[in-house]
Amino acid sequence: MTTDDTTPQSAEAGEELARVHYLRPEGQDMPAVSDAEVVEGELISDEEYRYRTSQKAQAIARYKGYAHDAVVVGRAVKTVATHQHTKTAGKAVISAGLTTVQGVESWGKRAWDASTMGVYRRQIKAAEASGDREALADWTERREQAVERRHKRMLDLPGLAWGTAKVLVGSLAGCVALVLLVGLFVQFSGTGAFIDVVTGVLSAIRWVFTAIAIAWTPFLMALPAFVLLAAYREGRKRGQAPAWLATAREADADMAIDETTIAKALEALRIPQISAYLKQGLPLQFLTPARIDGRGTHAVIRLPAGVTAEKIARRRADFATGLHRLAKEVWPTTGAEAGILDVWVADKGALAEGAGEYPLLSEGAVDVFKGVPFGKTLRGTPLLAPLMERNTITGGMPGQGKSSAARVLMAGAALDPTAELRIYVPDANFDFEAFKPRCSRYIMGAEDERIAEILADLTDLHAEVQRRGELLIRYEIPSVTRELASKNVGLHPLFVLLEEAHVAIQHPKYGGEIAKLLVDIVRLGRKRGIHVLVSTQAPTKDSMPRDVTRNCSNGIAFAVGDHVANDALLGQGAYAAGHRATELIPGTDKGTAVVKGFTGERSDIVQVYFLDVAKDHDQITPIIERALRLIEERGAVPGADRPVPEIETRDLLEDLDAVLGKQPVNAADVPALLAQYAPDWTPYQGLSGKALRELLAAEHGIKVPSTGNRYPVDPVTVREVLTSRATADLDEDETT
Ligand SMILES: Nc1ncnc2c1ncn2[C@@H]1O[C@H](COP(=O)(O)OP(=O)(O)OP(=O)(O)O)[C@@H](O)[C@H]1O
């Protein structure tokens, strides 16, 4: 109650007590009161009134204060409750609780599955649904075998328990006997008393029991926490929090790869046939259920009718998101049939480091007959590249790792002191410079002279192939062996790298001859200890003779654009059979290749070791220096004493001068005259009249005129150019 305003009430009330103080809320005017009205009130003195009003004011102030505080607190609570951090923390707490519950549920399901053969049951149902009789029979048989195995285990159980009990009792008896023996020994040898040994052992046992008793209570107290933690971990792997509980962290959470998660990831691709199939409540048919395989999980799935594995492989990145993995961690490939999906999913982060360090970086040598280190399969198994009696072709889009792979192979070969290395790089590419001291021949550059040198060298190599053939006959062996290779009889292993091979093969002047020689060398060389490694981008029939690709039993395919290049590298029919480098993603899969011929498998996916050639991180030079030290004892670098072959050159104008008489000759008839004049000079062999005209115009400035349908090559013009060239040479000699 508050009294605030005053109104005179009656004269009799006296001056002191005659005031009536109305009771009303502060700040409100009191209604006018007539004399006749009865007013409820209390008579108080002014002093009392002042006292009371001051009390009231204080109370009001206090009330106001409380009200304000309440508003502030209310606002604060609202701010905190609706703040992003609180929401996230709240979600995290609920999510953790839910995950733990899901973990317990998962244990339950797994126990139920294990006791009822759930995996087999589901697959049988799936096989029935898809009408796959073969799979049905297979899974039914597998279930029967599993039931039988379990039955046998149950029968064995009493025997096992009895055996365990016997072992325990026996061990106990053995320990007692040992203590007694030690006691007796101590007693009789005079080193102590029998009883001391026994009491010592008893004290030790007592101590152990006391320790267990002390640790028992904390252990029991902590046990529920451990169980909850384990359930939480299980829930993280198997459960899935509702979307509204997802926090930013979830995106990075690990996900166990099993039949359920694979099916969910496939479903998320929204491929109509898969969606329709799963909508019927049918499980996907797993020909191989998801199981740990190396550093990942492997599964084979028969896809619903109408979906090819290739379709999934093409959407690898989308598929990977459903499995909480990077695209490069998920490897869907075509299985035995177009509709069978073979998928391998790496453990999270397992492939992040690539193949890891090259194993021979700082020590070790190689026997090329056993293979050279090449990389690691996705499953994490180190892989050796077999080299002897083989040739290798490497290909892929630019920048995906071809040169690096060739370096790794050649570095391995360099570390065998019996091996000879020849490297040809028909391009301005310094990637192989560090190998130079270890090579018997090294040619680098895209100029015509360099290509001519490569041709001369291959001609020489061709002769060596023949020579080695004769040696094999002399030693009566079908192919070079380690023993013979080490004997210095001219049958040592010889590794020839032709980098950017298409540049040499498609060279307008020397390409044809280079291609022909290559075919012969790869065909005949392998039994004779010669391994050719050709590296190219996308082999086509023009850039790589089919006889070369056919004779390369090692194929290394980095990301390629189409099935033609794929099959040229991995063998005829590889694409159709699901061995596809087309499914490698350029950039993402840099350094990863599909290889054929390395293991018993038709193909393997390999992360290739990487050897840097950067100036500030040159890893090749130390290897080459080590390789040179290894061969020091044997003398020189194998093959280095071989003379550099002389390059045969011919002058077209001089040859024309010789073959042309006085009259002009039709250009189409001239190549035959040239070929007759210099039968060993291969560039004249396939020369056409048109090519001759182009050559004369481009290289000698002689334009053959067209008269009707004929192009007469005028000997006078040819001889004029020859004369002016000779005088120009003379002038040049005089000035120098
Ligand atoms: N095995 C690997 N591991 C990691 N990174 C690699 C690997 N191979 C290649 N790379 C990376 O890719 C880059 C290009 O490699 P490389 O020069 O071997 O490609 P390329 O296919 O030969 O290209 P080009 O056709 O343009 O010569 C390298 O500099 C390196 O950064």
From TrEMBL:
Protein name in the entry: Cell division protein FtsK
Lineage, top ranks: Bacteria, Bacillati, Actinomycetota, Actinomycetes, Pseudonocardiales
SUPFAM superfamilies: P-loop containing nucleoside triphosphate hydrolases (SSF52540)
Domain FtsK: 380-567
GO term, biological process aspect, one: cell division
Keyword field: ATP-binding, Cell cycle, Cell division, Membrane, Nucleotide-binding, Transmembrane, Transmembrane helix
UniProt xrefs under InterPro entries: FtsK_dom, P-loop_NTPase
Source species, domain of life: Bacteria
Residue sites binding ATP per the record: G396, M397, P398, G399, Q400, G401, K402, S403
Membrane-spanning ranges: 159-185, 205-232
Single GO term (MF): ATP binding
